[in-house]
Amino acid sequence: MSENKPENAGTTGSPQPASPAPSSAPAEPAASLPPSHEDAIRSAAKDTSPTAEEATARSSTDDPLSASSVTPEDPRTARLRDAAEARSAAAESTARQEAKVHEREVRRAGTYAGGATMVKPEPLAKPTVAAGEPRAAGGSAADLATEDEIATEAAAAPAARAPGSPPPGFGAAPDFSATNPPPPNALPPSPPRYLKQSDSAWSVFGRIIAARARQLFDRAGQRITQRTLRIGVSARIFHPEPGAKGLRGKTLQYLEESVAHWVMSRDVLVFMIPTVGHQGMLHPSNIRLRDYAKHLDGLLLQGGADVSPQTYAESAASHEWPGDRVRDMYELELLHEFVESGKPVLGVCRGCQLINVAFGGTLYQDIATEVPTANAHVNENYDQHRHGVHFPDGSTLLNMFPGRHDAIVNSIHHQAVKTLGRDLNIEAVSASDGIIEAVRYRRAPFVMGVQWHPEFHRAGGPELLDCTPLLDTFLRVARETRF
């Protein structure tokens, strides 16, 4: 049979204080505290409540005075004190966390504002709650005041927007009832004419006619600027042979194929211009050469027979060089019509000589006999004969062929410029004997003659001068002067 002895059986004479009976008064429910404060309450209660060992040591002391000094504490008062301390610790922890969140948001907003200097916010004041102070549901009065202040500051501070996120209100339905007037500077200084009170039916009709006219002019300008160029070429003339029958007894007008193909290489239309107004025509008409100058964009005078000495008031030095007086009269009239119309003119070989004669110049009827020191400018090889030319300073050919003062060209002529016509400039000379090889009329946009045949030069050829820049300049002026 075992004995049941109390642990303090050896201490006699010390009366054991009776344990206080559990109070029948209901304790405050723990649910009255916010759920976020439960952990803080538990930790605070654990730290502040006396342990069982301390209570046992206090009650089991040998000192009767100490035993008599232990006064049992009211359970309700202890619970109120513990709850107040727990609420104070929880409020302090919450305020510290919210201060950290507020500081982080302010720092982020300062970073988005362009790196402005930030001031570290001061921590929120610690709320203090007196023991036994009644607490409203959901938190103490200090807790509610702190939460209201934080909510007010959060509402007043601009919300920081993360990079790439849409602006506030993006995607929301439009408010059609709101009025958004335009800014003052967007309004015209005065109302348009069609809003004026004095506007009449005639003024409206006039504006309609003006708008229609502008539209027609715009369309006409587009047709002119986009229209393909039309270049006229003077005709070579084959006169009937005396006593000949068949085709040789008729007057023929033609152009050389190489000339037409050279001009058409730049995608322009070529028109051969026939003679008009000749005496004895079987079918007379009212068409004149000025009509061609009006409707065509430029003129090319091609090579052919010699210019008649009668055209520049001289007599023929030999019966072998009578020239073509009929063609001279036809081409001189054609040249002057194009010059008066402001259209460009390009003369080739005979065309160069005709330009000089048209402005009062004269010609060498035969270079070999009149200039014995000159080199041969023509032989039986025809277009295979060539020599060097030089572009003097001030020549426009230097602009067409930049960096070149000398070139190799073909030579198929026995006549040449002798006395330079008025208002003409020398553009090129023969490198070996100084015979004039190109002239330009300086009182017109483009009137130039070259003594060689550029249509016989292959484009991009390694030896002979590529005369494509000459053609391009002629056609460019034709586009500029066709309005």
UniProtKB/TrEMBL annotation:
GO cellular component: cytosol
Biased composition (Pro residues): 180-192
Gene3D superfamilies named in the record: 3.40.50.880
Biased composition (Basic and acidic residues): 36-45, 73-85, 95-108
Biased composition (Low complexity): 21-35
Region of interest (Disordered), ranges: 1-143, 155-193
Keyword Hydrolase set for record: yes
Residue ranges with Polar residues bias: 46-71
Key word Protein transport present: no
An example Gene Ontology biological process: polyamine catabolic process
Keyword annotations: Hydrolase
MF (Gene Ontology): gamma-glutamyl-gamma-aminobutyrate hydrolase activity
Protein known as: Gamma-glutamyl-gamma-aminobutyrate hydrolase PuuD (Putrescine degradation), contains GATase1-like domain
